[in-house]
Amino acid sequence: MSITVLKKAGDAPVGAGEAATPAVPRKRNRTRLLLGVIAFLAVACGGVYGRYWYLVGRFIESTNNAYLRADQVAMAPRVSGQVSDIYVRDNEDVVAGQALLKIDPRRYEMTVRQAKATVDAREADVAKSEADLRQQDAVIAQAQADMETAKVNSDLAQKENDRSAALAIRGFATQQKNEQTESALAQSRSTVNLKQAALDAARQQVATLKAQLAQAEAQLAAAKESLSQAEIDLTDTVVRSPIAGRVGDRTVQLGQFAQPGTKLLTIVPTAQIYLVANFKETQVERMRPGQPAEISVDAYPDLKLTGTVESFAPGTGAQFALLPPENATGNFTKIVQRVPVRIRVNALEKAAPAFVPGLSIEVSVNTKAAPVRTAGAVQ
Length: 379
What we know:
Blueprint: H1 14-20, H2 23-55, E1 60-69, E2 73-75, E3 81-86, E4 93-94, E5 99-103, H3 106-170, H4 175-235, E6 238-240, E7 245-248, E8 257-258, E9 265-268, E10 274-280, E11 292-297, E12 300-312, E13 338-346, E14 360-366
Antiparallel strand pairs: 1-10, 1-14, 2-9, 3-5, 3-8, 4-7, 5-6, 7-9, 10-13, 11-12, 11-14, 12-13
């Protein structure tokens, strides 16, 4: 007797169910194996990371509070006047000594000419004083000769008087002759006194002429200094770049009247850019100048640079703020301070992109590495 088995729609065939039963254990084994491999890899990676952190990672101090800086120079004229020429454009590269702009030089050229004329006049005064001094030497020599002549005449008159007096006593000469010789002797002595006074006056005049010469020389020196100052002012009408860099913040306009000290433009030394990283005070314990650093620029995420710690600021950022905090109050709240650290970027100018001050930086310093002294690094 045959039995018919009725099957509902959707029921699996009996043979198919019996064939699928052995596949369940194999699927579970595969899942367990995959989980085991994942667990092993996780433990291995954790171990590698833990070893790296213990040997290296715990010595790495990082911060994203870092920015590129440059010791930019604000250019201002030293003399006043209207700007007559501008030789540079915005963002133009310049070299040291290159002319940037020019102040109208006409007034300063006139001052130079006047100063040169004053120098010429003072040189003429010095030459005249020297000539007067030489002439006075001749006058002294003449007075000396006149005095010598007067002395000779006086000696001769003395002898004549002595002879006449002797003859008068013996009666061989008249009294009139004796009185004449006495008168001649008195006149010769007066002439000697007169010539001596003239010689003394001539010698005293030398001191006066020397004083006049010294005064003329002093006036000449002052005139030369005035000329030098005028020439410096004329040279300063051309404003030149003291360093190599790039022109920025140019506010000067043609025809503008500029006063001394007025900022007209700025020169940024793009080849001498460094960065300042503001580390927390709890991160600088093991930092030393010369330690290596890894640098990442936000503007160039694919560019990896290295640097070297150069120096530390002599105070935290709060100490150099416009209004330093006063902690001696009743509402004191402790806040972790930041210490500015200067880091030199080890990158060639041609190999690095166009860095500009102010770009955001992420920097990591390896405090385990021994400090390395590099050429040009500020210790």
